[in-house]
Design a protein that fits this description.
single chain; 83 residues; alpha+beta; five-stranded antiparallel beta sheet; 2 helices; 5 strands; 29% strand; globular
Length: 83
Amino acid sequence: MHFCFYFHLNNGEDVIHDEEGVLVSDADAALIAAMAVIQELRAEDAMSAAEWQGWRLEITDEAGRVIESLSLDDPLTTKLLRH
């Protein structure tokens, strides 16, 4: 069985809504996919990293409940992505 999770970007003022979502087996798989999205955002342009300061990627389930919130500029998130 697969579940749909959404990855919304939020900086406390603006929200970029994920309208498509991703189908994965569970919340752990959604977290792994979200970390890959963060890595892709960072890889697009290393110089734009400052533009993402203060932004978070919020993982929500089909009901709109936030199940995890990851900072785009958190060094811990960066460290986890390298392993």
